[in-house]
Amino acid sequence: MRSLCLDIVNYKYELDIKLKEKDPNASINPIEYGEAVMPFWHSEICHRQQAVKVNCFEVVGGNFNDHSGQNQSIEQCNILNNSASKSIGQPSYHKVGQFPLYMAGEGKNRVSLFRKYSVDIVADIKHRKYPDADSLLIHKALLRDLYYVSCSDKRFFESEHIKKLAFPELTIPLLEKYGVKRGCVLIRPFALSIKKKTLAKLCNGLLIK
Q1: Which among 44, 72, 84, 112 has most CB atoms closer than 10 A?
Q2: For the CA atoms of the chain, what is the radius of gyration?
Q3: Residue 122 three-state SS
Q4: What does the DSSP 8-state code read for residue 51?
Q5: What pTM was computed for the model?
C-alpha cells in the first residue's frame, strides 16, 4: 500500500515541475490535491499529535519556495526539527485515514529539503478519517473510460454519495489494495472526464498535461 501512496506523492511533484515551467509563482495546494485524489476524505480533524516524526517521502509538500536547489545543508533539517520539537514553527500535516500519506498544511515548503537528504520531518499531525473499505465501491461507466467511487457511510458526504474520479490511475489501485470492491456499471452517456478541469482548478487556471 505504501508504494501506491508514494505514487500519489510523486505525481504531485511531477505536476509541480510542469507548473513551474508555465508560471514560477504558481503553486498547488497539497490539501486540495489530496481531496481531489482521495474522494470522501473527511474534512474534520478527529485527532491531533504533536512532534511526530514523519517519513518525508510520504508527505505531499508545496512548491512555492523549493528549498532543494538552494545551498542548504542537512544541518538546516536538524535546526528545523529541533525547533519543531519545542513547538516553535512546527509544520502541520494532515494524515489521510490509515494510509501512510500526508498532505502538508503549514510547513509545506520544507518538504523538498528533507527529501533531498532523506530526513524524517518532525511535525504536528492532524488526523482526518477516511471511509472503511466496505463502505466504498468502485464503478465504471458503461462503454466509457470513466470511473466513480460511491460511499454508503453518510458521515463522509452531505448529498453526493457518488463521485467521479479525476485521477483513476492513482486512486483505483490504492483503493483496491485497501480492500474496496467493484460495484455495478453506471450508465453515464454524457459524462466527461474531469481530469483537465481538476488540474486547471488545482493549478490556478493553468492547463498542464
Answers
A1: 84
A2: 18
A3: strand
A4: E
A5: 0.92
**Nearest-CA neighbor of 30 among 91, 87, 84, 108?**
108
Between CA 171 and CA 138 the distance in angstroms is: 10
Q: Where are the domains of the chain?
A: 2-128, 133-201
Spatial separation of the C-alpha atoms in residues 41 and 110, rounded to whole Å: 24
Nearest alpha-carbon partner for 90 in 55, 58, 50, 62:
50
Name the nearest CA neighbour of 44 among 150, 157, 137: 157
167: which 3 cell numbers?
485521477
Residue 143 grid coordinates = 462503454
Phi, psi (deg, nearest 5) at residue 208: -130, 150
| Contact status, residue 58 vs residue 101, Cβ threshold 8 Å | yes
DSSP secondary structure letters along 79-115: HHHHHHHTTSS--EEEEETTSS-EEEEEB-TTHHHHH
Pairing of strands 92-96, 102-106: antiparallel
3-class SS at 152?
coil
